[in-house]
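In keeping with the milestone schedule agreed at the kick-off meeting, the structural modelling team has produced records for the first pair of proteins. Each record is given below as a sequence line and a structure-token line. The laboratory manager (R.T.) confirmed that both were archived under the project's standard naming scheme.
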Amino acid sequence: MAYKSLLTVVTDTKIAKPALEKAITIARAQDAHLDVLCLGVDRTQTGYYYAGASAVFQQEVIEKAKEEAATAEKFSLGLLKNSEIKWALDKAVAQLAGLGRLVAHRARFNDLIILPRPYGKECGQEQEIFVESALFEGHAPTLVIPPKAKAPVDAKRIIVAWNESSEAMSAVRAALPALIAADSVNIVVIDPPQHGPDRSDPGGALSQMLVRHGVKAEITVLAKTMPRVSDVLLRHTRDMDADLLVMGAYGHSRFREAILGGATRNMLENASVPVLMAH
């Protein structure tokens, strides 16, 4: 079992390099094909132009988006040309409102989507759209790469955040190629429910399933000693010197997480290692 079709999206070259380099690394290790989508974003919104809006202004916005796409293409080609992998590159311009459909359609036909972290000073709104579209509309597992994350060929030490949810199970299934190749996999259960089906053996059923695949799995049960579950996970990831975190994405609605916060958003904002998510 391996990832054979990969996708990454390049818009802002200031944040794209870690994700593109990681995508190339995975493609080389898995003998996979990498699709690179270079996008220029038209940030105007159809329907919101006032009556006297200048056609010249609208054309200027489109030309700027085309320049962004061309810059992204040149940047990507610089990393791809000597990469010794199978790859294809497409260039496009799209309005902000249409980005989700475009990325979701591409994501649907790939095994793994590799994207930069969507939050930070230099990140535009489109980065969050890419991640959510891949997960929700594209139904594709997504690997999110922090700006300064380590990029080993294979993740040797992996943390699996387990809470018995369908989202976590989807993430585990999507991560199987990485879990099988890892030296150690630590299943982390935080404050397991006292009345759940696994109450007597938290994480035991998952561990048994993974071991049958040849995964070197162990279980750690932690108390929620910090205000947020994500804080406990982040601390444990640092303590274990992990290379990768696997977790379910958006157990609550995207709207609730955007307004009130949640484990997914907090992890993406603060993780120092790549995070593989699925919904």
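The second protein of the pair:
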Amino acid sequence: MIAHLDLDAFFAACEVLDHPEYAGKPLVVSGDPHGRGVVMTASYEARPFGIRSAMSAAEALRRCPDALFVRPDIESYRRRSRAVWEWIRKRMSCVEQVGIDEGYIELKTPYAEPARAILADLQQGLLRETRLSASVGCGGSKTVAKIASDYRKPGGLTVVPPEQSAAFLAPLELRALPGIGPRLEARLAELKLRTIGDLAALSDETLRQALPGSVGRELRDRARGIDRRPVDPSPQMPVSQGAEETFPRDISTLAEMEAWLDRLAENVWTRLDAHDLCARRVTAKIRYFDFRTITRSQTMGEPFASAEELAAAAKSLLRRAMSEREAAVRLLGVYASKLCERGKEAQIRLPL
């Protein structure tokens, strides 16, 4: 059995621990809500207002004028994250941390009820020791565990017996399956596919037409609960960090597009900061009103030094794209890649 542990609204929870007076209030961790700030996370009291990660802080303020906005304290979040995962590793023999607030755990038992008891004990002990709540999912694969951890938030524990994997996944919306984003979901909807079960039931021939290549087969396998990826306890560096936003209405002015790139770049920079990473490559993603999607990238000789530098490069790429085709946009994204650990920048200052 494999478990996925996800710390609930982690940045907001850290702020409440450092500032108990924030407890019970709609709390938003973000940049300046009166400027170009972006939401990093929101407490569960703020989420009923529709506030979510990557939303502009100004929009979050509009939705909830009484919300409490605080700037992210990345060092505090890193310190608490280290304490959480050190505590977990002392109790579990095989742990793969995949983010500042989430990771996978391999359990020695193949049975659901013993797994439930182990994880309930771990979850309750973590809450006692760190005062942080976590949602936990468990199943026969990483895919099932990841989806199950989102099933009952916050503080939930969902265990799916391996033989029930396909039945558990079948009624869920396609977006619940890792690897399916808005674009792919829209393509599958054209084939009348709405649920994970619909994807799992696709014949080989229809799958080849809808999702040719190995990606389609892999997604169908995961829709059926088949995922052979092991829990890997070796330290891993993310390949990239990114953020994107689909707009409720198409935007057409360059000024509005550039303001969004500022917000998205700040979001990406905060994620890099949380992992002690820097980046040399930025990619701007642009989806036009007619769903045509393009990307433009730039690789630097040295890592970006700030969110402003990252945003400036993304805006330069946007302007280049707009000179080729000036049209309304429905989605923008910023991605940082060619990552390295902070403090090791000198090792990658090589000629392009």
